[in-house]
Amino acid sequence: MGERYRLQAGDALVAVDMQNCFLPGGNLGIAGSNRIIAPINRMIRIFERKGLPIAFSRDWHPPDHISFHEQGGPWPAHGVAGTADAAFSPELIIPVAAVIFSKATDKTSEEYSALHAKSDAGLTLQTWLEQSNTKRVWIGGLATDYCVLNTVLDLRNAGYAVVVLTDAVYAVNVHPGDGDRALADMTARGAEMIKSDEVGD
Q1: Which of 32, 101, 140, 188 has the greatest number of CB atoms lying within 10 Å of its CB?
Q2: Active-site residue, 21 included
Q3: Are 44 and 15 spatial neighbours (Cβ–Cβ below 8 Å)?
Q4: Position 200 confidence tier, pLDDT thresholds 50, 70, 90
Q5: H helix or E strand, kind and range, residue 157
Q6: Where are the domains of the chain?
């Protein structure tokens, strides 16, 4: 196994929007997306055992968010703060030491990228990564062609090495091939693509 597939100091894991709203049965549920829970949980266990930082992002919308159909947006109402739809999957492992970052909390702005999402303490994900001395960010979650894509591109623009766990992301595919195009775009911007079972335990 290549050294680049082994975790090291300076690595952090970010699980993007693993919420009920995007999983089967949710208000914006993606059929088949629940298959990524197991590989994400595997990575969470590995990071936790190694004492490396773990973050979760979530959509945490007000009920009248600009992205909702009722306000002329492209999506059905989803991820409304405090609802069961916005909760993380009950199958998801959430370690005590993990930090949760909420995004798109302002009704007037969409926020696909998690980089500027905020914790309850008011810390942005970017500041948290800096304070954690992160050099390389490992990414899984939903959806490949929206929040994962935009988070990865922002991380690359901010100078981070990024590893996308290809079996731990899943696309909406509003247009056929959107997910594949997103993976190609992230690769072109310097993100590395591997499967979770290629990561040394």
Answers
A1: 140
A2: no
A3: yes
A4: confident
A5: helix 149-157
A6: 10-182
Beta strand pairing call for 136-142 and 11-16: parallel
Fold of 10-182: Rossmann fold (3.40.50)
DSSP string for 74-126: SB-S--BTTSGGGSBPTTS---TT-EEEEE--STT-----STT-B-TTS-BHH
Q: Say if CB 141 and CB 166 are below 8 A apart.
A: no
The pLDDT confidence band at residue 127, using thresholds 50, 70 and 90, is: very high
Question: Is-contact 142 16, C-beta < 8 A?
Answer: yes
Q: Which of 11, 17, 85, 145 is catalytic?
A: 17
Tell me, what's the pLDDT at 1? 42
Point out which residues pair with 170 in neighbouring strands.
142
For the chain, the average pLDDT equals 96
Catalytic-role residue among 21, 85, 145, 147: 147
